[in-house]
Amino acid sequence: MNIAAHTFLFSVYPYICLAVFLMGSLARFDRDQYTWKSDSSQLLRAGQLRWGSNLFHIGILFLLFGHTVGLLTPHFIYEPFISAQHKQLLAIISGGTAGLICFAGLTLLLHRRIFDPRIRLTSHQTDLAILAILWVQLCLGLLTLPFSFADRADAHTMLRLADWAQRIVTFRPDASGLIAVEWPFKVHIVLGMTVFLLFPFSRLVHVWSGFASVAYLFRPYQLVRSRRLNVPAGHQQPRRKD
C-alpha cells in the first residue's frame, strides 16, 4: 500500500465514515421514519431466528462495548489496575468468546436469509449485504486473535491501535503513522469503518432506538387519574340517561 492510500484510509476515511454515520442517521430519522425499523421476519419462521438473533445480539453488544472502551480508554487510566499485557490477554479471551458467539448467531441469521425461500423473497438486498459484510468482519476479527496472542508479551499492537483511535477522536492528523500492523488488522479497521458508512442506509439504524430506549428507565411515573367524579358527602351522583 502506497503512502497516499495509507494516509487516506487511516487519517481521512474515518472522518468521512463518521460524518455520514451521524448526519445520515439524522437525515433518515427526519425524512424516512417509516423505514426506521429492524424489518423482522419472525412471522415467517421464528425457530432459527430465536437462536440466531439472541446469540448475535449478545455477542455484538459485548464486542461493541469492548471495542469502544478498550480503544478509547487512555493507557494511564487503567495502568494502576491492570497492565497492558494482561489487558490484551483479557481482550483476547473475552473478545474471542463473544466473537464466536456472535459468529454462530450471525451464521444462523445469514443461512436463514439465504436458504429460506420465503424469507429470501421478502428480504431487501441491503439486508443480505449488511449481514454478509458483518460476517466477513467477524471472520477478520477472529483472524486477528492469533496475531494478538503472539504479541501479548509487550501488547505493542493493542497500544498502537488504541493510540490511533484516540488520535482520530481528538482530531490529531498524525494518526495514520501508527497503523504499522499486520494486514488482518488493517482490513478489519477499514471494513469496520465501512460498516459505519453504510449504517444509515441499512436496517442497522434500529440500533439507535435500542440505545434510546434506555431513557425509559429514568422517566418519571405516568400519573393516571381516576374517571370517577368526586361527589361531596351527602349528595347522590346523578345517573346517566341512556
UniProtKB/TrEMBL annotation:
Its main location: membrane. Pfam families: Nitrate_red_gam (PF02665). It is found in: Cell membrane. The keyword Heme applies. It is an enzyme of class 1 (oxidoreductase). SUPFAM superfamilies: Respiratory nitrate reductase 1 gamma chain. GO terms for cellular component: nitrate reductase complex; plasma membrane. Residues 6-227 form the NarG-like domain. Coiled coil: none annotated. It comes from the Bacteria. Keywords: Cell membrane, Electron transport, Heme, Iron, Membrane, Metal-binding, Nitrate assimilation, Oxidoreductase, Transmembrane, Transmembrane helix, Transport. One of its GO terms (molecular function) is electron transfer activity. Its EC number is 1.7.5.1. It is a multi-pass membrane protein. One of its GO terms (biological process) is nitrate assimilation. Heme b binds at H57, H67, H188, H206. The chain crosses the membrane at residues 12-29, 55-77, 89-110, 130-150, 189-218. InterPro entries: Heme-iron_electron_transfer (IPR051936), NarG-like_domain (IPR023234), NarG-like_sf (IPR036197), Nitrate_red_gam (IPR003816). It catalyses: nitrate + a quinol = a quinone + nitrite + H2O. Gene3D superfamilies: Transmembrane di-heme cytochromes, Chain C. Dimer of heterotrimers each composed of an alpha, a beta and a gamma chain. Alpha and beta are catalytic chains; gamma chains are involved in binding the enzyme complex to the cytoplasmic membrane. NCBIfam families: narI. This is nitrate reductase (quinone). The gene is narI.
